[in-house]
Specification:
Its EC number is 4.2.3.1. Its cofactor is pyridoxal 5'-phosphate. This is Threonine synthase. The protein is built from 14 helices and 12 strands. The strands form 3 sheets. It has a 6-stranded mixed beta sheet, with helices on both faces.
Length: 418
C-alpha cells in the first residue's frame, strides 16, 4: 500500500520544483511559498472513500493525503476527528436549518493548531531536524511545544507580547524555550523570520513559511465531507490569522472534488476582527493581495489579531475568490455575544473561535448566507485558554446564600418561580 501520494514541492511564485527530502521553508530560488503536490490521477485510480471508514479518527487516517513517507515518524496525541455538532441554539435564532460547529476545542492542547503541528513535527522528524523555531500569539506555540517534546525536538517559541499569561505558561509547561517578542506590526515579524531562513538556515514552523503545516488542515475537508455522507457544506466559515486553516481546508475540498468524492465545492468565508481586518479590507476593495491594516492591541480576538498577512495573504484571498466566498469582519461586542451563544450550544470558545459564529450572524443579516444553506463554523480553540474573555462575556453571578435549607428554598423559588 502507498503510504503517501505526495510527489514534490512547487513554488507558488516561480514554479520551481523541489524534492520532499529537502529541509526547506520558503523557495530557495525566489523566496516564494512552497506547496506540496500529489499524484491525484493515481489517487483517483487507487483510493475510494470506503477505504477510510474503518481507520481510527485522528488526522492520520488520511495519511495518503500528506507528504510524510514513513509511518514510523508519526508524532500524534490523538488530534483530529472532532465532532461536527449540529446547532440547537444559534441556528434556530438565525433561521438557519443546517448550522454545524466543527468543535476543535476538544484537541489535545485545546486548539486546531494540533492538526498542523502533528504533521509538521512528524515531517521534521523524518527530515532529521533536531531543533526548530516558531512565532506565536499563544496557541501555536503551545501546540508546537507539546509535539516537539514528544519528538525530542528542541523548541524555541517567540511569543508576542500581547499573548495572555495562560498561553505563555502553557508553552513553558510543555518544555519549550520562550522569548517574548515586541513589534509594531506583523510585517516586521515575517521579514525577520524570512531573513532567518536565508541567513541562519533556521528551520521554522510558522504557517506558510513552513510548507507542510497547513497540509494537515486539509483534514477539515475530509472529516466534514465524510460526516455529511461525502457532501461538502455550502459554506465553511473559518477565523483567519495567517490563514493556514482556511487555505488547507480549501485545498482539501479541491482534492476531494478532483477525485470525484464530492460533487461541489463550498464557499469559503474568512473572518477577522474589525480592529485588524487586512483580508476583509482587501476583499471589499476587490484586491487579491492584502496590505497591513489595523491595530492588534484593539481586539480581544488575540489569535486572529495579525494586521499584516504573510506574503500579502494571497493564498487566503485565492481561497475566498476561487470558491465564490467572502471575508467578514466582526466587532468585539459581536464576538462576546457569539461566545454566549456558543455556551448555549455546550461549547466554550475563545474569542477568535467565536468570531466565526459572529460572522455567520452578520452574513445572515446581510443576506450573504441563505436559510437553507448548510453552514459549518470552525471553532478553533477553547475558551479556557483565554479565561479573562470568558469572564468578560459572562460576569460572575450576584446570587448568594448560606448553607441553609430555607435560603436554598427561597433561592430556587426566585430562580424557578415555584
Amino acid at each position: 500500500m502507498t503510504w503517501s501520494y505526495a510527489t514534490n514541492f512547487l513554488c507558488d511564485r516561480c514554479s520551481s520544483e523541489f524534492s520532499l527530502s529537502e529541509s526547506l521553508n520558503t523557495c530557495p530560488k525566489c523566496g516564494g511559498l512552497l506547496e506540496v503536490q500529489y499524484d491525484l490521477p493515481k489517487m483517483k485510480r487507487e483510493l475510494s472513500p470506503k477505504m477510510f471508514a474503518s481507520r481510527d479518527t485522528s488526522i492520520w487516517r488520511w495519511h495518503e493525503f500528506y507528504p510524510l513517507r514513513d509511518a514510523a515518524n508519526v508524532i500524534s496525541l490523538g488530534e483530529g476527528g472532532t465532532l461536527l455538532t449540529p446547532s440547537i441554539y444559534a441556528g434556530p435564532k438565525l433561521g438557519l436549518e443546517n448550522l454545524y460547529f466543527k468543535n476543535d476545542t476538544l484537541m489535545p492542547t485545546g486548539s486546531f493548531k494540533d492538526r498542523g503541528f502533528s504533521l509538521a513535527i512528524s515531517f521534521a522528524k523524518e527530515l532529521g531536524i533536531h531543533r526548530g523555531l516558531t512565532y506565536s500569539s499563544g496557541n501555536a506555540g503551545a501546540s508546537f511545544a507539546a509535539y516537539a517534546a514528544r519528538a525530542g525536538i528542541e523548541a524555541t517559541v517567540l511569543v508576542e507580547y500581547l499573548a495572555n499569561p495562560v498561553k505563555k505558561a502553557t508553552i513553558g509547561l510543555y518544555g519549550a524555550t520562550m522569548a517574548t517578542l515586541h513589534f509594531e506590526n506583523m510585517t516586521e515579524i515575517t521579514d525577520m523570520l524570512e531573513k532567518g531562513v536565508k541567513e541562519l538556515g533556521l528551520y521554522q514552523f510558522v504557517n506558510f513559511i513552513n510548507p507542510v503545516r497547513h497540509e494537515a488542515m486539509k483534514s477539515y475537508a475530509y472529516e466534514i465531507s465524510e460526516t455529511l455522507n461525502w457532501q461538502a457544506p455550502d459554506v465553511m466559515v473559518h477565523p483567519v490569522g495567517t490563514g493556514g486553516g482556511i487555505w488547507g481546508a480549501w485545498k482539501g475540498f479541491c482534492e476531494l472534488h478532483t477525485l470525484g468524492w464530492i460533487e461541489k465545492l463550498p464557499k469559503m468565508v474568512a473572518v477577522q476582527p474589525t480592529a485588524t481586518g487586512p483580508i476583509t479590507r482587501a476583499f471589499q476593495s476587490g484586491l487579491r493581495k492584502a496590505e497591513r491594516y489595523g491595530d492588534s492591541t484593539k481586539t480581544i480576538a488575540q489569535s486572529i489579531a495579525g494586521n499584516a498577512p504573510i506574503q500579502g495573504g494571497e493564498r487566503v484571498m485565492n481561497a475566498i475568490y476561487d470558491s465564490g466566498g467572502f471575508a467578514e469582519s466582526v466587532t468585539d461586542d459581536e464576538i462576546l455575544e457569539a461566545m454566549r451563544w456558543l455556551g448555549r450550544e455546550g461549547i466554550c470558545a475563545e474569542p477568535a473561535s467565536a468570531a466565526s459564529l459572529a460572522a455567520v450572524k452578520r452574513a445572515v443579516v446581510e443576506g450573504r448566507i441563505k436559510p437553507d444553506e448548510r453552514v459549518v463554523c470552525v471553532i478553533t480553540g477553547s475558551g479556557l485558554k483565554q479565561s479573562s474573555a470568558v469572564q468578560r462575556a459572562i460576569p460572575e453571578s450576584m446570587l448568594r446564600l448560606d448553607a441553609d435549607y430555607n435560603q436554598l428554598a427561597k433561592l430556587l423559588v426566585e430562580i424557578w418561580g415555584h
